[in-house]
Amino acid sequence: MRGGDAGRTMHRKLDHIRIAIDSRVEHDAPSLLGEVELVHRALPEADLDSVRLETRFLGKRLAAPLMITGMTGGHSVAEKINCVLAEAAAEAGVAMGVGSQRAAIENPSLASTFASARRCGGGELVLVANIGAPQLVKGYSVEHVVRAVEMIDADAVAVHLNAAQEAFQPEGDTDYSGVLEALERLAGELPVPVIVKETGHGIGYEAALALRAAGIRYLDVSGVGGTSWVRVEMYRALEAGRVALAEAARVYSSWGIPTAQAVVEARWAAPDACIIASGGVRSGLDAAKALALGADLAGAALPFIRAYAEAGREGVSRLLDAFRLELRAALFLTGSRSVEELRRAPLLVGPLLESRLRQRGVDLGLYLRRLRGLSRSC
Ligand SMILES: Cc1cc2nc3c(=O)[nH]c(=O)nc-3n(C[C@H](O)[C@H](O)[C@H](O)COP(=O)(O)O)c2cc1C
Fold first, then answer.
1. Domain-located, residue 81
2. Predicted confidence band of residue 254 (pLDDT cuts 50, 70, 90)
3. Which of 22, 64, 178, 210 could connect to 137 by a Cys-Cys bridge, CB 3.0–4.6 Å?
């Protein structure tokens, strides 16, 4: 990367963090997790204290099926943030991803801004590397991705899909042709699993089906309901005086597939996939609903960067504690003694989500029956 490019990438990354913390960057549309209700069990026949949240992910043990999804790196500020998030994630026994490592792949002096996550989180932390899908068709070889994995001793690499964001970014990488083939090659050659993740606009049935056929078994659906990257770009365009671009971004700011719908569509398309639900997951109860609906893990990003901005390490740990407490309560109150049992807990689905799924060809009754018969592994 040329000096100017590296500088621009760094500035863009800092802009993103600043805007995400300070501005109203969330979709106007909901995740539709609010349409999902877990059925209360008046006789749980379990002890709250002995409810087990443990699960396995990428060959390691998690104390809870939760993840702080990829956000940052590439700058000294990010080095500190990755360290703090990793310490808190390791202490709570949840997984974590770093942000796009493109900057450090092209400028190795920035590697420590990502590697701080492994250094601070320790060997047991489930840590996920990150690169952008457009890079796979713009000259990145498997060796480049291996570099990202080795940089943080990662347990997997997440390849992010952000077509919606790139479409409204003046310097956007908008060429997605050949990405699927590149992903298939990568999954066949890389020594660690490839997670394909969206970034807040959702993976639906067609994309999940194509990805699974290409050999991808890990999907983070990252749907509508939380951070909208188009909205982030809207603020950047406004700041740069690009009025027409800002207006176009505003029009598309809630574009995409709501998280609850994306979980079902992805599971319907890829029954044996390991599915992470993110995008607007804002509590342990949201996480519990996503798990009962078909996800294996639930993740969030924005709440953790904001908790960090507000109260540093303590803020992040407090939020992780709250998520775990709320998730534990959901298990207890549905009579589930383990995450495995929660995945089979009865649930009610509201008319909006039900009708959207019907229009997408999903028979919800059949889906839920099939789901309960599936043995899922991550
Ligand atoms: C400040 C910030 C930076 C992000 N950077 C990345 C990134 O570099 N790579 C990536 O795959 N996702 C990135 N994301 C997207 C998140 O991982 C997640 O998919 C998305 O924000 C939806 O989750 P949320 O609603 O909980 O924020 C970022 C999110 C935030 C808030």
1. no
2. very high
3. 178
CB 200 within 8 A of CB 233: no
Residue 211 located in a structural domain: yes
Confidence (pLDDT) at 78: 95
Lowest mean pLDDT among 2-6, 152-156, 191-195, 275-279: 2-6
CA-nearest residue for atom 29, ligand 1, is 71
Asked whether residue 273 is assigned to any structural domain, the reply reads yes
Cα torsion through 189, 191, 193, 197, rounded to 10 = -60
Angstrom CA distances, 206 to 3, 5, 32, stand at 39, 35, 20
Residue ranges lining ligand 1, Cβ < 6 Å = 16-17, 20, 69-72, 99-100, 130, 158, 160, 197, 199-200, 222, 226-227, 278-281, 300-302, 305
What is the CATH number for 184?
3.20.20.70
pTM over 0.85: yes
Q: How many angstroms is it from 159 CA to the middle of ligand 1?
A: 12
Q: Is residue 295 part of a domain?
A: yes
